[in-house]
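Exercise 7. Given the components listed, write out the predicted structure of the assembled complex. Treat all entries as one system.
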Amino acid sequence: QKEVEQDPGPLSVPEGAIVSLNCTYSNSAFQYFMWYRQYSRKGPELLMYTYSSGNKEDGRFTAQVDKSSKYISLFIRDSQPSDSATYLCAPDLANRDDKIIFGKGTRLHILP
Amino acid sequence: EAGVAQSPRYKIIEKRQSVAFWCNPISGHATLYWYQQILGQGPKLLIQFQNNGVVDDSQLPKDRFSAERLKGVDSTLKIQPAKLEDSAVYLCASSLGQGASYEQYFGPGTRLTVT
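Answer.
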């Protein structure tokens, strides 16, 4: 089983819809959960992070972590064409010497 | 604040040739990373520097890849000789310190095609 699994998509949704992006992981020791957004021909940028289980909201974005099922979600409300990008989940052990393990990413297309 | 700079942006070489990539991190960032991102995959860490010392190079194919950060600022990544499977985007990132609590800032990457 791979450490981090994501459906690669592409996922196409109409503008204004609620988007749900998901990720599963195998290492129960992960404590820090990040979502990166990567536009075409650009490097990834940190979108949101959460520490341990629970929800975190930032504007139209909500990150949710369920450690009991090792499941990570990112919700986008009122999706915009500018949200079209690849979204990478990246859980981490939250220790100083650890390296980030990125998922493959899900390609999202928001249709105007 | 200027971001992470990388050059060249694109490079096409034949297999068995050599190639070098350059990265200039954000000023003051002590930690520098090189990632390899194959099409359809997430970035994979190749090497991590803390100032001019190597912290982690466990996933660097050392028979053909080398990297240095001599003065603790700029860094170069070299491939010699290149193989077809080295075709990928090579991303440089930097952060103020080590660990997930320090945000990594990525450059635009160098897209390498090996023919």
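Discussion: The domain at 4-111 of chain A is CATH 2.60.40.10 (Immunoglobulin-like). Strands of chain A lie at 4-6, 11-14, 19-25, 32-38, 45-51, 54-58, 61-66, 71-76, 85-92, 106-111.
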